[in-house]
Specification:
- A hairpin with a 2-residue loop joins β6 and β7.
- This protein has a 7-stranded antiparallel beta sheet with strand order 2-1-7-6-5-3-4. A 5-stranded parallel beta sheet has the order 10-13-16-9-17.
- It is α/β, with parallel strands linked by helices.
- It folds into 4 domains: 114 residues, 2-Layer Sandwich (Beta-Lactamase); 162 residues, Rossmann fold; 88 residues, Helicase, Ruva Protein, domain 3, CATH 1.10.8; 41 residues, Homeodomain-like (Arc Repressor Mutant, subunit A, Orthogonal Bundle).
- The chain is globular and about 80 Å long.
């Protein structure tokens, strides 16, 4: 079991850090926590966390936050602002983020408390600091909002199946990170992981890129070339911007999914492939199906297990965590020692809608690093479109008028509420849905689910579907 000394690297960082054991007793309490609460480590180590008062800033009057319920499992994580009230009844507005880890199989919680009452000066406390706690690929998807907890769970479930996955969300919301996590958590993690941007190439070039070609199949084909599907054999292929592929590519992709064979351009020899397909789109494929742009049969074969990413404007409580992460990242890249943001800069960041999502936030911090030569990023260091009231109003109005919310309001066929336990990804509802769209063809349904026909029959019998 890790001792107090194991956490000494957090002793003097400019944000509060505390660790709780499974009995909710404090195992570590750094100097910033002492300043915030006016309670020393000697006074609270080994004592229950209830001695420290956290209040809900949204209640009037302030009501206590139940920190204990977070670690005992009734709440997934802490991911909100809070008021700290010290022994002198002085209130401080803070942002709390927490991560969980097991130490000798004992569940513990490590929480980071950032004082945002005057300026954001907390050192980065993202995955680099948690490396000794969790080196999972999923840890690279930064966020403590409740929807991120659900997203993490869906990723873990998807990684345990061979079913095709569709990742749906706006640009800049981390769809590629989700695909990375699914692959590297799966049994195929030691095999190839091939990524293809389907919108970056013309139809003929994409065909050659995906399926390969033989020498002489077209002008410039001077030698045989294997395609991405062959390169991914035994592993996973990630098809980004899948909504942009042409009808011809759609037909060929459908055959790959159904028969697990490909033919190189200019050749009629069938080549068997064993691949897991993960696709991603920022478009509403259902709408494209209705308009006849995207094949319905292909949609249902790709959309077996949909995962929806979250726009940044819908999890703004994660912005301090993300800002801290990007500051640490660019400090390492540039050699600077920027500590955080001033109150004015942070207020502008929190007030912006971020149509470009996390990618736009990252770009804004990188822009600020070019200009900033002080310990804190200030208002004037941020990009013009974020600082300008007129620009902000125009961009955020455009987000609403273009109906960016349409995709995330579509309910997935597989709700997280229907998957309560690991290894039970294939529910009765999933089977019924896929059978319906395959005209009750069990062989095709089993292929889409990534199981044998016998396994499908056993599951149907279990669910009383025979």
């Amino acid at each position: 079991m890790k001792t107090y000394n194991s956490f000494l690297e957090f002793e003097n960082i400019p944000c509060g850090v505390f660790v709780l054991d499974k009995k909710f007793n404090v195992a570590f309490w750094n100097n910033e926590m002492t300043r915030l609460f006016d309670i020393t480590s000697k006074e609270i180590i080994g004592k229950n966390i209830s001695r420290a008062v956290f209040l809900d800033p949204k209640s009037n009057p302030y009501l206590p936050l139940n920190i204990i319920s977070c670690i005992d499992g009734s709440i997934g994580s802490i991911f909100k602002s809070a008021i700290i009230r010290n022994s002198n009844n002085i209130d401080t507005l803070v942002f709390i983020s927490a991560k969980f880890f097991k130490d000798d199989q004992e569940k513990r919680m490590m929480a980071f408390v950032t004082d945002i009452s005057s300026e954001i000066t907390c050192k980065s406390t993202t995955e680099s600091d948690f490396a000794f706690l969790n080196d999972s690929p999923i840890s690279k998807i930064i966020g403590n909002d409740e929807r991120f907890i659900n997203l993490h769970r869906l990723i873990e479930l998807a990684s345990e199946s061979t079913a095709n996955v569709m990742i749906i969300g706006e640009s800049g919301t981390g769809k590629e990170l989700v695909s990375n996590a699914i692959h590297y958590l799966s049994d195929r993690k030691d095999k190839a992981f091939i990524k293809v941007n389907c919108s970056a190439l013309s139809e003929s070039l994409l065909e050659s890129e995906l399926f390969g070609h033989v020498k002489g199949s077209y002008t410039g084909a001077y030698k045989d070339k294997i395609g991405k599907f062959e390169a991914a054999n035994g592993g996973t292929i990630f098809l980004d911007e899948i909504g942009e592929i042409s009808p011809m590519i759609q037909v060929k992709l459908l055959r790959v999914i159904q028969e697990r064979v490909i033919e190189r351009v200019g050749d009629n020899k069938e080549i068997k492939v064993d691949i897991r397909i993960i696709a991603a789109t920022n478009r509403n494929l259902r709408d494209l199906v209705t308009k006849g742009i995207f094949r319905e049969d292909l949609f249902y074969r790709l959309n077996v297990f949909p995962i929806y990413t979250v726009p940044l404007r819908d999890h703004k409580t994660d912005i301090p965590l993300l800002v801290s992460h990007f500051i640490e990242k660019f400090n390492q890249q540039t050699g600077k020692s920027i500590k955080g943001m001033t109150e004015d800069a942070f207020r502008i960041i929190m007030d912006y809608c971020f149509p470009g999502n996390v990618r736009e936030l990252e770009n804004a911090i990188e822009h600020a690093f070019v200009l900033c030569n002080k310990p804190l990023i200030d208002y004037d260091d941020l990009p013009q479109e974020i600082r300008s009231t007129n620009s902000r109003i125009g961009l955020c109005a455009e987000v609403k008028s273009e109906n960016y919310f349409e995709i995330r309001n579509v309910k997935p066929e597989v709700s997280i509420s229907t998957i309560p336990f690991k290894r039970k990804l294939i529910t009765k509802e999933v089977i019924e849905n896929i059978l319906q769209h395959n005209n009750e063809n069990r062989t095709e349904t089993a292929k889409i689910l990534g199981i044998s026909r016998v396994a499908l029959w056993k599951k149907m019998k279990k669910f009383g579907m025979e």
